[in-house]
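Objective 1b: paired records.
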Amino acid sequence: MSDVTTDKLVLAVPSKGRLMEETAQLFARGGLKLARTGNDRGYRGELQGLPGVEVAFVSASEIADLLRKGEVHLGVTGEDLLRDLIPEAETDVEFLKALGFGHADVVVAVPDFWIDVSTMSDLEEAALLYRRRHGTRMRVATKYRTLTRMFFSGHRYGGEARSVDTVSMYRIVESLGATEGAPGAGLAELIVDITSTGSTLKANSLRVLDDGIILKSEANLVMSRRAAWTDETLALKDAVLGSLG
């Protein structure tokens, strides 16, 4: 349970970039204004037009962690981050509303020259062949460790109910920089990463497997099930949600 015990509702929003701008525009359309308190670089703020809401400006990945821990009541962040941080996300959070921006697909992408690898089933065969030839497991560069493990074991989010083919002969190498550059740099054989237009993948001579979309993600308004909720904060939650249409 969270240390949040006041009757103020704490809303976490992205601190910078396009997600912050689109979140601010979304609330503005509902007659509310995100405003920082103290100075323009401050990490705290308010939702003008709705007294009782305290705003925390933090990174999108930190928002997911704060929601998981119950240290904020509501947050705006990507589903991809929540699904990766919380494998069974619905146990700790509730997805209240998809917001229509921040679209990105989490995908499995392989080098273009792998002409015989188009599906996850093909990838499993390639992984077995790689193990026989090199005596080690094929490397997958990613920041999405949990999503990768679950998808490669046959799990699928949303869409069709069927499972994907499993891939077992691989190992994850953590991506600390631009994931799409890992195969070209010899750091991995393939990647799991996000893409919105596919242009960056194409520029790095990578392509998405035919059944390699792990998750179609977008920004969501999310409620923490672990925060300390009161009648007052529940009413404020309804007011925030209502302002979004």
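Objective 1b, second protein:
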Amino acid sequence: MFFLGEIFVDIALQPTPAVIGHCGTCSACIDICPTQAIIAPHRLDARRCISYLTIEHAGPIPSELRPLMGNRIYGCDDCQLICPWNKFAQRSTLPDFDARAGLAGSQLVELFAWTEAEFLSRTEGSPIRRIGHERWLRNIAVALGNALRAAVDATTADVLMAALQTRADHPSALVREHMTWALEG
């Protein structure tokens, strides 16, 4: 497991030797990737990566990738979870990495109903906050659309459709586009 970050310093640092390859013939990350974003060993097409699409990408999520995203609304990490080397990873003791009350285990319909003020309040101090409310709603609309397509009964489908329709007049064209796609299921 790894967490990407940068620290800017004004002193020269000695380069760290390159890490030797540990993958061998393993292709678990390539095989598990829902969008086939890992296109070859050590090669990623970020334009297909769910983490990129849900966190970094500001525009519309390509419609052909939406069904592949399932219920992921902020990142993915399947490649990290399947990697056999990560069995050596240790859980961080920093509380910043703990599951947050109000996010973990929440229902998509509930999250989609958050106002911008609720979003800002509930994501205070979390990296989720930097995607903003608009992309938050975009991502959840995709997840709701995928849930709607997989709904096993009419009651569930009705609840999902009703939640999506609450954003029919949203001021953001981005949110409306993804909400409309979700309802087309």
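The helical segments are 28-32, 50-56, 78-82, 108-112, 116-122, 132-150, 154-165, 173-183. Residues 28-89+102-183 form one domain.
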